[in-house]
Amino acid sequence: MALPSLRSLMTRFVLRRLRTARAVARLAYRLYPTRPALIDRRGTLSYAQLQDRVLRLQAWMQAQGVRKGDIVFTWLPETGEQYEIRLATFENGTIFASFHKHLPADAALSTIERVQPTVFIHDPLLSAPILQAVRERLPHLHLLALGDDYEQALARHTPRAGTADVHEADVFALHMTSGTTGLPKAIGYSHRKYLDSVRLISQAVDFKPPANGPDVHMLGLPLTGPGSGLVLPTLLAGAALVMPEDFRATTLARLIAQHRVSRAFLSPSAIIDLLDEPTLDQYDLSSLTHVPYGSEMMPAPKIAEAIRRFGPIFQQGYGCLEALPPVTWLLPHEHVDARGMPLGTDILSSVGHVIPGVQVLIRDEQFAPLPVGQIGLITVQTPVQFEGYWFDPEKTRETLRDGWVVMGDLGYFDAAGYLHVLGRSADRVHRNGQMLNPREVEEVAHCHPAVKEACLVQHGADAVLVLSLRHHWRNGRSQQSMAHDVAEFLVRNLPAEMQPDDVRVVHEIPRSFLNKMLRREVRLMLAAEPRSTDPVHGPHTAAPTRSAQETRPHAHPASEAA
User: Fold this and answer.
1) Boundaries of each AMP-dependent synthetase/ligase domain copy (predicted)?
2) What pLDDT sits at residue 182?
């Protein structure tokens, strides 16, 4: 592993001295005034221009009587204004919270009533269904609409620095869960924990700028979600932040090429889309030097293909909203061998080793620790774990047990100390009296060269594998023929007890706003279709039942796409 650069060592030294997110932002304004800071649909803002807008917005909030500790809520698309608002709350000690743009209107209204913000900055196109109800139920709420109202508010106020005494123990943000399984839950994080997360990241991430160009970071995940983790590293590096309005492969590729992006935070699905994009060769992506990926598990055959295509620039960390990353690291050099070629699926299917200062235990259903190689609940203790959901003690008790965060995932440690995450315990599939972990089947399916995405779900009594195909495999053969081909591949490469009962090919697998596969939507999609009378894969003889306390899965076949 290469030694850290002088720039990286200096960043770590500075990080030890900084105590609040406001201190990080003010340092960036002072050190990098002429550098590009934000690139979005409006163009490019320098750090000085960004600071001017942030301080004008802070002055508007102050004129409304907003005080330290008040909650500033946003419901906006992925725009630079969202970044400005976040930095304004750093400045005045208010608490930033945001909805993602796909949250249903009734859920947004319910959450606003529950959280009781002081300010609501919104996109009228999103808020129109609930705006009248918001005004009636929260008459003292200060509203600011994106567009002319927002720009006029900034123009009317002179830039003014925040005067509140902000401490490291103060809550700086309410992070909202995605809301895909119910109403969003809120977690309040202090400045100290947010900065501690960045300090842990800095142990492995070298913040040195590229050798042949400016340092430009790009969000490949929403700022309302995991993308928020890129804010402080971008400020510390004095880098520009590129904010795409959508996360389609062509949009990401165009912006990388146009702005010479050096560091991009991508979801596994975004990487898969890039690999599958037929026009990708039209874009020069050679500026990319570092690609952290996360938010869901990455299929090992696909990250191996990405390494062969783009080089050893990928890094994975494991974590969640309740236990901030990094819990584990799989660093760029740990993805490849001495020749720079991708390692085997036994390593690439893992999330790496647990980092110093963090503990991970695999437990059975009685919460007793399990030995190496056995599958169970992943539980975590980390300096940057949450202390509870915002005013929700019942949900807190479900997730925080005896000081350990129950991640909701099943996994195991291998003999080399790599953590393997097999997915949510709630997504396991019942079949013939046994339990299947979807990822064990999906990883093997990804080794077939035609498979773009794979999703094993429960459909009645059956385990159904739903597939989408890569672009150049979509023409020439029927979906039924391709499903049969993949099913035969699985027969050759999976034990009989792990074979799906049926394999189906669809045009696209539904995804969430975080670009993650939505298993719930896949189940609903199957439920809405007529039951197949001639499944591609018939049921097999029942195998012995496997509980959560299983042994580690089988080895993967060699990828036919290699």
Assistant:
1) 31-390
2) 55
